[in-house]
Target: NfeD-like C-terminal domain-containing protein
Amino acid sequence: MDWFSGAGLWWLIAALLLGIAELLIPGVFLIFIAIAAAIIGVVTLLFPELGLAGQFGGFVIWTIVTVLIGKRWYRDYPVDTLDPKLNDRVARLIGETVEVTQAIENGHGRVRVGDGEWPAHGPDIASGARVRVVGADDGVLRVEPVPPALS
Model:
C-alpha cells in the first residue's frame, strides 16, 4: 500500500490547507470542513478502492455532520468575550443620554447619537432636551426624559 500517493494524501493536504486558512481567517468555520476532509483522507487511505463519487459524497456528508456538531458546540459553550455587545450597536446605546434634535410629538421625533441622528419614540419632549435611551424597536430608539439633576 502506497500511503504517499493517491487521493487520500490530497484530502489530507486539503485538510491541512483549510486548517491553516482557519488560523488566518478565524471564525469562518473552515475547521469543520478541514475535519471532514481529514476524515475522508483517512478513509481513502484505508480504502483506496473508494471512487471519486464516494469520496465527494462522504465529504459532503461529513461536512454537514461536522458543521452541525460545531454549531451545537458553540451554542452550548459560547465563546466568552470582554465586550458581548461589540456588534450590537443598538444594545450599546441603551442607557446613553442623548439630545432631542427634532421634538418628539405624538410619540415620534429624532435624537442625536454621536455625529448622527436616529428616529425616536417616547413621550412628547421639546427639541434640545436630554433623554435616556431605554430600548429600541426595528432601529427606532425608545427614549424617556432625564431628570434635570442627571442631565
Observations:
- The beta strands are 97-105, 108-113, 116-121, 130-137, 140-145.
- The chain has four helices and five strands.
